[in-house]
């Protein structure tokens, strides 16, 4: 991820700029509690980046701030500092830093952290994003796509599937604020999402399909819990979707050229 000015830190910085409408709206509604949680997440994430910088000469990344923001916005509530330290440490180290840092990871570290916290501390309630966050996610997604740092096909694929389900009358309206935030912060990760053209469309559509499936069959889960679970499964499926896209392209190429 290095081409002239467009190295990985430029991409991470542009991603941070893109999500500013979302971050500022969340801080406006969350107040001092939200700001304190974000500072804590930044400290924990930054600590591990410094450790790996010293141990492996691995430079820290602006992506650590993206991870901290996503965790602060979406993590289950009423967790102790120790629980947050365990979750953020596990996600940052095992999902990102051990692979050589952001840009070389397979899964989004914030997604892994949130899944760890959700599965490990099942009694902690999930947050309920207010509706303005869903509206703030729209300019964030548009900026990310305009800058070329968020996969537009992934976003479009998810919007088409989820929008079609909403128009069809399926009961997904209560999930939309959480889905919008998760789509921008977790699913539209340029590293952890599918990289082929067809794979990108399939990636977004798969996320949307999982949201519909969970909305219809997982009645006991909170909206953020459903969206984070769908994001995790989508990230795990992304390499397979790319493989399917490449295989289909090869079949078409053989038919065309013999």
From TrEMBL:
InterPro entries: NqrB/RnfD (IPR004338). It comes from the Bacteria. Pfam families: NQR2_RnfD_RnfE. The chain crosses the membrane at residues 12-29, 35-55, 106-126, 133-162, 168-188, 200-218. Keywords: Flavoprotein, FMN, Membrane, Phosphoprotein, Translocase, Transmembrane, Transmembrane helix, Transport. One of its GO terms (cellular component) is plasma membrane. GO terms for biological process: transmembrane transport. This is NADH-quinone reductase.
């Amino acid at each position: 991820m290095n081409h002239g000015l467009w190295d990985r830190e430029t991409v991470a910085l542009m991603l941070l700029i893109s999500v500013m409408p979302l971050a500022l709206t969340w801080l406006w509604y969350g107040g001092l509690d939200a700001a304190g949680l974000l500072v804590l997440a930044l400290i924990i994430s930054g600590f591990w980046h410094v450790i790996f910088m010293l141990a492996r000469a691995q430079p820290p990344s602006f992506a650590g701030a993206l991870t901290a923001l996503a965790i602060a916005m979406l993590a289950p509530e009423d967790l102790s500092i120790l629980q947050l330290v365990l979750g953020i440490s596990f996600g940052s180290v095992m999902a990102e830093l051990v692979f050589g840092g952001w840009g070389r990871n397979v899964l989004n570290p914030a997604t892994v952290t949130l899944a760890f916290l959700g599965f490990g501390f099942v009694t902690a309630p999930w947050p309920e994003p207010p509706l303005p966050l869903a509206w703030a996610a729209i300019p964030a997604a548009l900026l990310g796509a305009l800058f070329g740092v968020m996969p537009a096909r992934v976003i479009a694929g998810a919007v088409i599937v989820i929008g079609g389900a909403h128009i069809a009358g399926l009961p997904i309206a209560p999930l939309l604020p959480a889905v919008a935030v998760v789509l921008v912060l977790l699913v539209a990760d340029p590293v952890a999402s599918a990289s082929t053209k067809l794979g990108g469309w399939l990636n977004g559509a798969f996320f949307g399909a999982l949201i519909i499936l969970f909305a219809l069959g997982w009645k006991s889960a909170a909206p953020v819990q459903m969206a984070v679970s769908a994001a995790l499964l989508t990230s795990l499926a992304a390499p397979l979707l790319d493989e399917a896209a490449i295989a289909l392209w090869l079949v078409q190429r053989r038919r065309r050229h013999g």
